[in-house]
Amino acid sequence: xxxxxxxxxxxxxxxxxxxxxxxxxxxxxxxxxxxxxxxxxxxxxxxxxxxxxxxxxxxxxxxxxxxxxxxxxxxxxxxxxxxxxxxxxxxxxxxxxxxxxxxxxxxxxxxxxxxxxxxxxxxxxxxxxxxxxxxxxxxxxx
Length: 142
Description:
A five-stranded mixed sheet has the order 1-5-4-3-2. The relative contact order is 0.19. It is built from four helices and five strands, in the order ααβαββββα. It is an alpha+beta fold.
């Protein structure tokens, strides 16, 4: 692994720790590139806030926290140039209206993969591949 990759992994870990889990949204600009684009299909979540600019991202993070109380972890699987492939694990509690469902109070863990590209030392593009049915089967009790 190169020194640059190690530095970018440290940026990613700080983002997970301080923004995603630490709720320090005021730090978002330290981690997210101004031209950031998110390509994950999250339509199943039925979010009210799903923007691509920094304010939209902040609003989406806040909404997800209020409705799912997530705790994230990400493990590096491999590097491909400036793109890191990740194995994500997110533990959530269904405490708000999301997935077009009333809250159930159920806690469960979602596992999924993703890739993140960096530019100028910041997160530039991200795409996660998740299965909404994984969450819905727990919520619906299947």
